[in-house]
Amino acid sequence: MKQKIRCAILGTGHGHAAGKLRVLQGSDDWEFAGVCEPDPAWRARREREAAFAGVRWLSEADVLGDPSLRMVAVESEVRQLVDLGQKVIDAGKHLHLDKPAGVSLPAFGALLDAANRKGLIVQMGYMFRYNTGFDLIRQAVREGWLGHVHYLHGTINSIYDAAHRRTLDFHPGGMMFELAGHLIDILVLLMGRPRRVTPFMRHDGAFDDQLTDNTLAVLEFDRAVAVIESSALEVGSSARRHFEVLGDAGSVVLQPLEPPAVRLCLGESRGGYQSGWQDVAVPNIPRYVRDLQELARCIRGEQEFPYSKEHDLTMHETLLRACGVEE
User: Fold this and answer.
1) Per-residue DSSP letters for 186-236?
2) Where is the GFO/IDH/MocA-like oxidoreductase domain (predicted)?
3) What are the backbone dihedrals phi and psi of residue 219, each rounded to the nearest 5 degrees, phi first?
4) pLDDT of the residue at 301
């Protein structure tokens, strides 16, 4: 029987915090010690929520000073993610860091360098790395089913009320910064670093705030172009979230992203699939389950961690470029 790995959550202001808590509590891989929320306002808010009922509340010293805790998931508001993540690395613990990786590329790079020196894993909270629909897309590109890939297009929209918008308008990238990293992560995995990124940051909603709520970026590669969109203004947006890859020998469309629904077109039979358009059934595995399973295997030494610090840094640099920010 495998030994469970002791872990904790640090910070709760992220939109993924409750979901990560649920998976860690119910996992056979993890022994969940508790939650630390350094911000009194967030602590009071979370204590009233059903998702956090019955959790053991820890101090920051409890989390960082306990040598039996081997992994900490940082789930704070975005502006605190890297600072808290750096504390976790300094304490000698593996890190699950939710996304995006802060407002400063040098600060994120310093965190990754420190983790690398200490032999610690930093797993980013880009959950579509573990989405079975994206698995198929990555396989199709990797094995050449689609021929020369020349166009990629992704949309990840939402709709936010005035209160939620105010929590996001601190960064000039707005919705691109908030959501589009999920798709840019996949894009960089598929295509590498774009040679040119042209952002379009617009405020088109009828709100008295500074949120760039209607955003688009054009990313150019050698012999390929990609378009990534993110808006805070679309009703029913989850059903229309999509990612598509077009090649000269086939195309693949994932829509919606969750639960994953895949359409594949091939010029000739490849990978066990027939020529022409077809629906491809893929498993619908809940968010965060595969991510945290893989992290546990890597901590135990059962597999190598598959995402390099070079990828994570290039991905975050690309996201910032797509937001109109360069460092």
Assistant:
1) HHHHHH-S-SEEEEEEE--SS-SS----EEEEEEEETTEEEEEEEESB-TT
2) 136-252
3) -115, 125
4) 97
Cα separation, 91 vs 49, whole angstroms: 30
Residue 15's SS3 state is: coil
CATH fold, domain 132-284, is: Dihydrodipicolinate Reductase; domain 2 (3.30.360)
pLDDT band at 326 (very low <50, low <70, confident <90, very high): confident
Q: What is the mean pLDDT of the chain?
A: 97
Instruction: Give yes or no for a contact between 118 and 89, defined as CB atoms under 8 angstroms apart.
Output: yes
Q: Following CA atoms 209, 10, 126, 262 in sequence, which dihedral angle do they give, to the nearest 10 degrees?
A: -100
Alpha-carbon distances, residue 306 vs 143, 183, 249 (angstroms): 18, 18, 28
Give me the sheet containing 5-10, strands edge to edge. Answer: 30-36, 5-10, 71-74, 94-97, 122-124
Quote the percentage of the chain above a pLDDT of 90: 98
pTM of the model: 0.97
pLDDT of residue 69: 98
Of 253, 228, 211, 214, the C-alpha closest to 315 is 228
Rounded Cα distance between 180 and 53, Å, is 31
The continuous run of DSSP H or E covering 10 comes out as strand 5-10
- Looking at the domain that runs over 5-125, which CATH code has it been given? 3.40.50.720
How far apart, in whole angstroms, are the C-alpha atoms of residue 246 and residue 225? Answer: 10
Of how many residues is the chain composed?
Answer: 327
Q: At what angle do helices 289-300 and 17-26 cross, to 10 degrees?
A: 60
Say which residues have a Cβ less than 8 Å from residue 193's Cβ, sequence separation at least 6: 314, 317, 318
The domain limits of the chain are: 5-125, 132-284
Region 309-318: what's the mean pLDDT?
98
pLDDT at 179: 98
Q: What are 147-170's pLDDT values in tens digits?
A: 999 999 999 999 999 999 999 999
